[in-house]
Each structure stands twice: as C-alpha cells, then as structure tokens.
Design brief:
Belongs to the class-V pyridoxal-phosphate-dependent aminotransferase family. NifS/IscS subfamily. The chain is of the alpha/beta class. About 40% of the residues lie in helices and about 15% in strands.
C-alpha cells in the first residue's frame, strides 16, 4: 500500500527525524526544572537559554529576553490582544485588524467588542488577499492601541505588506502585532526593520512539536501575564518550562534558517506549485487560483477553486485515494460554516467558498506527491461532474 500524500502542512507539519531526536534526547539529558537552582535545573536552564537565542536570532530580535516561550500561536495571540487591552484601555479602546485573520485573533477581539466596550475596525481584503494601506491609515486615530495583522494568511497564502504596515503604525500610538504562524520560516521576517512590536509563532508549522511557540515582545512593552502562577519566562508566562519542546523547536528553526535553507525551501515549493498548475492546465480541469501566484503570495500554500465541485465531496474522494488536502483552516474544519477568509475576499454568494481546496507544502513533499495528486484529480473530477449531471437530470 502506497504511503499517503500529505498536502496540509498549513494545518500541521510532521515532525522530522532530527526534531524528534532533539526532543527525545532532551527528555533524557535535560529533565530538570529549569527554574530550580540545583545542578539539573541549572543544566536545563542553560540549554533553554541557548534555544531562546536561536529563536531571537531567527527574527533579528535585539535581545534574547524579548522572546517568551509559549504553548503556541493561540496563546501568544490571545496574550497580546487581551493583555494589551487590559494594560492600555485608559489610553484608548480601539483596535485594528483584518477580516480574514485567524480565529485566535478574531475571537478574542469579538469578545472585547461584546463584553468590554472596545471598538474594532476590520480592514477589507481584496480578491488577491491584500489590504488597502490607505484604509489602515484612515482607521488609525489617537484611540488606537493595537494593530494586529497577520504576516501570511493561513488559507490562501497571501503575504501581507508587513514592512509597509510597520512603517505606518510606528508613527502612531498603537503597538503593531503580527500573527506570523504561517509566515515564520517561509518568508523574510525582521522585527527591527519591519517595526514589529509583538509577534506570534508556533513550532508545529515548521516540523517542530505541537504545544510550543514563542511570543516576541519588543523591549519596553509591558503588560501583565495572561495566566497567574510562578515567575517563569521573566515573569511574563508562568508554568514549568517545557525544555524538550523548546530544544526541538530550536532544532526545527536551525533546519529552516541555516545555510539559506528557507530560500531553498521556497524555491522548491514554488516549483511544486508550478508543476501542479501546469498539470491542471494540461488536464483541462476547470479551476482558478484564489488569490494569485505573484510575489506577494507565500511559497508553500495554494488555494484552488475547482469550479462546480463541492469541496467537502472532493476532499473525501481525495482522502479515499490517499491524498490529504484541506477545505480551509484546520481549526474550523468541523464547522458547516463557509471559510470566512474566502467570504472576506469574494463575498457570501460566491461559489468559491464551497468549491475550493487548500494544498500546503512542507519539507517532506516531492514532485512525486504532485504527480499523484494530479492523477487523482484527473480521475475524480470527471466522475464527480458526471454524478452531478445525473442528479440534475
């Protein structure tokens, strides 16, 4: 039996042998409590701080202490939103975001609107998955305390103009936060050059373990911890430090950033997407790209509208053929609601929101994977069209 083709790396990535080994080695060698002063604690603390340095260096943070290790993107996003609101509400109660952010940003903001009297401006996104920078400028006012705009959209892969956004926000009273969960390791990120104040990252998107990530917090930005407990993470995030996960995460970072690997990965992903597009064209499959294939798209993600084909049925048929894709964010895959990302881009009545699939690439994907996907699509889509025609008749 052939191995399954996994093309849902935006949902999660498989751990690599190297990151698994780093984690199991750490469980054996560095099991001490990193906050303890005994020998085993000091040993664990030493390697934890080395991992923190790797994280800081990867985004060009000025200080290692600007990195707070968390359980992942959701905790980091929630911490920024809730605790910025708590710390700065006397200065203003206005926050700016986009209509197609991840739920880890949108849902806390909805909560602030409904229960704590905050005003949230949701910037429009166009059919290329981009915002209008003038709309951002117009929305900023003296009451704005936070601008939270993702680096790369998790469903269509659009790469937002983070540098230009940072340039705009730096001259205001607001802090600039970016959810970089989908962009980290895929596109260039420099928190100093891009004027980023706060940034969220998750390890399991770059072949690291789940339940570990980091929150970058620019030196001088202070708000209370989201949780209450001990004084770990420089009093910013209580809880005994997960040293094995942090070391595995650091290994994943090194594998993505050392020796130009990020650029090599990007070139490989772009080549695979071109192979897929060429194969779809040669197969006369009726499709369109959601977003586009220009430089303002992240290399690893492609979202395709298969015209007239229900995405839920196509997804099941692909799965039966050993191909794993996604109809949207893994966080809402069990929902009957259409993708809020595609609704924001194309409107509630567009057939795209029920007929689109996302394919996202990782370091384990090969040209053979794309060949198998194309082979499956060439068989499945004509069959589904015939079945749809019979139902109409």
């Amino acid at each position: 039996m052939e191995e399954r083709v996994y093309l849902d790396n935006a949902g999660t990535t498989p751990m690599l042998p190297e990151t698994m080994q780093a984690m199991t080695d750490a469980m054996h060698d560095y099991w001490g409590n990193a906050s303890a002063t005994n020998y085993f604690g000091r040993q664990a603390r030493g390697v934890l701080e080395k991992a923190r340095h790797v994280m800081a260096k990867s985004i060009n943070a000025k200080l290692d202490s600007e990195i707070n290790i968390t359980s992942g993107g959701t905790e980091s996003d929630n911490t920024v939103i809730y605790q910025t609101a708590r710390a700065r509400q006397s200065e203003g109660k206005h926050i700016i975001t986009t209509k197609f952010e991840h739920e880890a940003v949108l849902r806390p903001l909805e909560d602030l609107e409904k229960h704590q009297g905050f005003k949230v401006t949701y910037l429009d996104v166009d059919q290329n998955g981009q915002i209008d920078l003038q709309q951002l400028k117009d929305a900023l006012d003296d009451e704005t305390i936070l601008v939270s705009i993702m680096t790369v959209n998790n469903e269509v892969g659009s790469h937002l103009p983070i540098h230009e956004i940072g340039e705009i926000v730096k001259d205001s009273n607001a802090w600039f936060h970016t959810d970089a969960v989908q962009g980290y390791g895929a596109v260039p990120i420099d928190v100093q050059a891009d004027h980023i104040d706060l940034l969220s990252v998750s390890a399991h998107k770059i072949h690291g373990p789940k339940m570990v990530g980091f929150l970058y917090r620019r030196d001088g930005i202070n708000f209370p911890p989201l949780m209450r407990g001990g004084d770990q993470e420089m009093k910013h995030r209580p809880g005994t430090e997960n040293v094995p996960a942090a070391l595995s995460f650091a290994k994943a970072i090194e594998m993505h950033f050392a020796n130009g690997q990020r650029e090599k990965n990007a070139a490989h992903y772009v080549a695979l997407k071109k192979q897929l597009i060429q194969g779809l064209d040669e197969s006369n499959i009726d499709y369109e790209i959601n977003g586009n294939l220009t430089d303002n798209m992240a290399p690893q993600t492609i979202n395709i509208w298969f015209k007239g084909i229900r995405n839920d049925a196509l997804l099941v048929n692909l799965d039966l053929n050993g191909i794993v894709g996604a109809a949207g964010s893994a966080c809402t895959a069990g929902s009957l609601e259409p993708s809020h990302v595609l609704v924001a881009m194309y409107g509630k009545t567009s057939p795209r929101i029920y007929e689109s699939l996302r394919f996202s690439l990782g370091m384990t994907n090969t040209s053979e994977d794309i060949q198998r996907l194309l082979k499956a699509l060439r068989t499945i889509i004509p069959q589904m069209k015939v079945e749809a025609t019979k139902k109409v008749d």
